[in-house]
Amino acid sequence: MSITENEARKVAHLARIRVEDEALPALAQELSSILQFMEQLNEVDVEGVEPMTGVTPMRLKRRDDVVTTGEMADKVLSNAPDAREGFFAVPKVVE
């Protein structure tokens, strides 16, 4: 699949990235290369392959799931620019 300069311009706009007109051909080529690589990956037969979180099989460290109150509200709120009555205070957004 090949990306045109107009499509590259649209992608840049959607991503809110300013791209100069002279850089559009290079961006279109790079996006086309990425899509070609994805098509190449789709050809790989992964039937029966277990999903993995890393390249080396290992068990992740886990801790007991214990419900607590946190007991650190004052410490957390000390980082807030404005805290009132034990909560974060934020400006009103909806009228």
For the largest beta-sheet, the strand count, sense and barrel status come to: 2 strands, antiparallel
Give the termini distance in whole angstroms: 48 Å
Spans with pLDDT under 50 lasting ≥5 residues?
none
Radius of gyration: 25 Å
Keywords: ATP-binding, Ligase, Nucleotide-binding, Protein biosynthesis
Protein name: Aspartyl/glutamyl-tRNA(Asn/Gln) amidotransferase subunit C
EC number: 6.3.5.-
Catalytic activity: L-aspartyl-tRNA(Asn) + L-glutamine + ATP + H2O = L-asparaginyl-tRNA(Asn) + L-glutamate + ADP + phosphate + 2 H(+); L-glutamyl-tRNA(Gln) + L-glutamine + ATP + H2O = L-glutaminyl-tRNA(Gln) + L-glutamate + ADP + phosphate + H(+)
Would you write up a description of this structure?
Heterotrimer of A, B and C subunits. This is Aspartyl/glutamyl-tRNA(Asn/Gln) amidotransferase subunit C. InterPro entries: Asp/Glu-ADT_sf_sub_c, GatC. Its EC number is 6.3.5.-. It is an enzyme of class 6 (ligase). The protein has a domain at 5-42: Histone, subunit A (Orthogonal Bundle). The protein is flat. It is 36% helix and 4% strand. The protein has a two-stranded antiparallel sheet with strand order 1-2. Helix 1 crosses helix 2. The longest helix is centred in the middle third of the chain and has 19 residues, at 24-42. It has 95 residues and is mainly α.
